[in-house]
TrEMBL record:
Its EC number is 2.7.13.3. It holds the Pfam family HATPase_c. Residues 623-739 form the Response regulatory domain. This is Stage 0 sporulation protein A homolog. May play the central regulatory role in sporulation. It may be an element of the effector pathway responsible for the activation of sporulation genes in response to nutritional stress. Spo0A may act in concert with spo0H (a sigma factor) to control the expression of some genes that are critical to the sporulation process. One of its GO terms (cellular component) is plasma membrane. It comes from Lacrimispora celerecrescens.
Length: 744
């Protein structure tokens, strides 16, 4: 009996041990398979990050090349050279621009072709003439010129194992199509510079295929030009190619994906099992397919280190727990390492995106800097022009009197000049040289609307109707008439542009609203009562994606050269400064309606208040030295001062004025000098005059008040600074102060 128990005990123990071993073996096998899948998935995620980075690198480089060439062909000098060529046949100036660009951009195109609109070449330049020649008909130059578009051209073989890419930039001047510039990019250079640095590691590699599935970038030059579907015999029929066909099907129908498949390089047996990740690069309607490939054995090579541990478990049950602990620890360490690598690659991708965003912000800052420079120059020139316009208008109003039949006409000229002056003051903030003369006061909004309607009716085409429906609420708003005039003209002009061609109806209406009648999103920040101004058109309307961007600076739907993208951005800024807001509703092909909301003011309207200047008595006691390089300003100031009894000696050249002062320093009681002159700045002239005549009073006039002028005023070198356009009454007062006279 005991012997039977011992025998049964051994059998039970044997079954238990066998079951335990089988269970542990099964558990270990499942663990091994799970680990293997995890390794493959982690590698695929790494490969996916690499393909995204490659796609972004290539897209940024090609887009930048198109942008740089567009900047080149849009420069006035290049366009003038093209116009000269069409008149005289000369190409030297054009060649200079092309040669300079290619020499300055060593990573750019290797060849450039300049074409007539019919595709005939004007000339071409090969930066590397020692490279192999190719059949230029592959470039399809005639089609590139006839299509008159800008973007990606064709991918073509330079040689059997060497591919190139053409980029097309159309040349326009004044709306006239002058031809096209076709640039040839060497894809081998792009591969070496932007693809190879993102190394897959080991036997892995990165490939790029065009829309037809032709290999255009590959580390093995023999694979260039290869197409799986075209070059592998019976590819669509044989079962052995199932996994490869499935991978290609996913690649050509999705934006990105991953696959494990059997690869047949060049159709040669045997197959290599590979894992890959791929993504599609979309650039101006052209698709390329980026693949990062790694041999399957390399992807799972990390598992082989643990095989010996798995074998020990089969022979030593007692070491199972220890071996399992080691395996689990090893799995965790390897997984952590792979996760760190994934995070590292993700950070690289984020860094590339931030770099791209930084470049866009830098370009945006350059635009704003350019606008600031232009604003300063424009303000200076306009103020010089407005000085005689406003001055002569004031002078004629004084001389003619209100009873004269031309008084109202001259008054309109004066009002327009004042409005232009205030518009210049709106430009000054862009140059960081603001003045404090922008005036806010109670306004009759209906009067501002009618005035703007009167101006826009002069430019409105005959096929566009104009309907004005004012609520007669006689509501006043607190603000600046010129700024609100600018807002309305902007909206009127945009509405007219949207109806060009087919015509339509522009409707302007107003109504007075309580807070609870406002749109819900504005009620929390609104006051008690508002005026709503609606500007509605029956034009082309706007899509939702455009509506979300219309108030962004530099965004425009107009053709290049027809709009700055600043109009609606300025409209929004002006309304915010008036404690108001704007919203828009639009339906494509039906029209748009802009709603302006302004808080009602209790003040009395002062829109059309007129100022009658007092008559001035004449004086003959003051002799003036006037120095200004603008002849129009000199003539105006001289004429008015002499009619008021002053003796004026005027000079357009500051050096001649200094020479005259040296010869007779006691001749003048005061000096009026312009700040900005080409031969000598007004600040330098004022200092040299003070050295010769420390007691003489100096008045400086300027379109922009700079810091050096303010420093001279604080130091007592300059007695006063007047901003152009000059107010004549203020000029007289400052002259009397500078000359030490009492007011007459």
């Amino acid at each position: 009996m005991k012997r039977l128990w011992e025998k049964g005990k051994k059998q039970i123990l044997s079954v238990f041990m066998s079951g335990t071993i089988i269970f542990l073996t099964f558990a270990m096998y499942n663990t091994y398979q799970a680990y293997r899948r995890m390794i493959v998935e982690q590698q695929q995620q790494n490969l996916m990050l690499i393909t995204r980075a490659v796609s972004q690198n290539l897209e940024l480089n090609i887009s930048e090349q198109l942008r740089q060439i567009s900047i080149l062909i849009q420069t006035p000098g290049f366009l003038d050279a093209m116009e000269t060529h069409y008149r005289t046949g000369e190409t030297e100036k054009i060649k200079e621009y092309i040669f300079s660009y290619m020499l300055s951009d060593q990573s750019g195109p290797s060849r450039m072709y300049l074409l007539y609109p019919n595709g005939e070449p004007i000339f071409h330049y090969n930066q590397y003439p020692f490279l192999e020649k190719f059949d230029e008909s592959l470039l399809q130059l005639e089609n590139s010129a006839l299509e008159s578009t800008t973007g990606i051209g064709v991918v073509f073989p330079i040689s059997e194992h060497h591919y190139g890419l053409s980029l097309i930039n159309s040349v326009y001047s004044g709306g006239r199509y002058l031809g096209a510039v076709v640039s040839v990019m060497d894809l081998e250079n792009l591969y070496q510079k932007y693809v190879l640095p993102l190394n897959v590691g080991g036997m892995g590699y990165i490939t790029v295929k065009d829309e037809q599935g032709i290999m255009i970038m590959h580390p093995n030059e023999k694979m260039l030009g290869f197409n799986y579907r075209r070059d592998i015999k019976d590819f669509e029929e044989l079962k052995q190619y199932d996994s490869l066909r499935e991978m290609l099907g996913i690649q050509y129908t999705r934006e990105e994906g991953m696959a494990i498949y059997d690869s047949y390089a060049n159709g040669v047996m045997p197959a290599d099992k590979e894992i890959s990740a791929f993504s599609r690069m979309n650039l101006q309607g052209t698709s390329w397919y980026i693949s990062a490939v790694m041999p399957y054995n390399q992807a799972v090579s990390a598992e082989f280190e643990n095989l010996r541990k798995f074998g020990i478990l089969f022979g030593a049950v007692l070491l199972i727990v220890l071996a399992a602990s080691v395996i689990i620890y090893s799995l965790m360490k390897n997984r952590q390492k792979l996760e760190l690598e994934t995070v590292y690659l993700r950070e690289i991708n984020d860094t590339l995106e931030e770099l791209h965003q930084s470049r866009e912000e830098a370009r945006h800052y350059q635009k704003l800097t350019t606008i600031g420079t232009l604003a300063g120059g424009i303000a200076h020139e306009f103020n010089n022009l407005l000085t005689p316009i406003l001055g002569y208008a004031e002078f004629l109003k004084e001389q003619l009197g209100k009873e004269n039949e031309y008084y109202q006409d001259i008054d309109e000229v004066h009002k327009a000049g004042v409005r232009a002056k205030e518009i210049v003051e709106q430009i000054l903030p862009f140059s960081r040289k603001e003045t404090d003369t922008t005036e806010y006061r109670p306004l009759n909004l209906d009067a501002v609307i009618r005035d703007a309607v009167k101006m826009v009716s002069l430019i409105s085409p005959s096929n566009i109707g104009l309907k004005v429906l004012l609520d007669d609420c006689e509501a006043n708003v607190y603000g600046n008439a010129t700024q609100l005039h600018q807002v309305l003209l902007n909206l009127y002009t945009n509405a007219i542009h949207s109806m060009e061609g087919k015509g339509g109806m522009l409707t302007i209406s107003t109504r007075r609203l309580k807070t609870d009648q406002l749109p819900e999103e504005y009620r929390q920040i609104a006051g008690t009562e508002y005026v709503e101004v609606s500007v509605a058109d029956t034009g082309c309307g706007m899509k939702e994606e455009i509506l979300r961007q219309i108030f962004s600076p530099f965004f425009t739907t107009k053709e290049a050269g027809e709009g700055t993208g600043l109009g609606l951005s300025v409209v929004q800024d002006i309304l915010i400064s008036h404690s108001g807001f704007v919203r828009v509703e639009s339906t494509p092909e039906e029209g748009s309606c802009f709603y302006i909301y302004l808080p009602v003011s209790a003040g009395r309207s002062a829109v059309q208040a007129a100022v009658v200047e007092p008559k001035r008595e004449l004086t003959t006691e003051i002799s003036l030295l006037l120095v200004d390089d603008e002849e129009r300003v000199v003539r105006y100031i001289t004429r008015r001062l002499e009619r008021s009894g002053y003796h004026v000696d005027a000079y357009a050249d500051p050096l001649k004025a200094l020479e005259a002062l040296e010869q007779n320093p006691e001749r003048w009681n005061a000096v009026v000098v312009d700040y900005m002159m080409p031969q000598m700045k007004g600040t330098m002239l004022a200092q040299r005059i003070k050295i010769r005549r420390p007691d003489i009073g100096i008045i400086m006039v300027t379109g922009l008040v700079e810091s050096d002028a303010l420093q001279l005023k604080q130091a007592g070198v300059v007695d006063s600074i007047l901003v152009k356009p000059i107010n004549y009454n203020m000029l007289i007062q400052e002259i009397k102060k500078a000359a030490g006279k009492e007011r007459i």
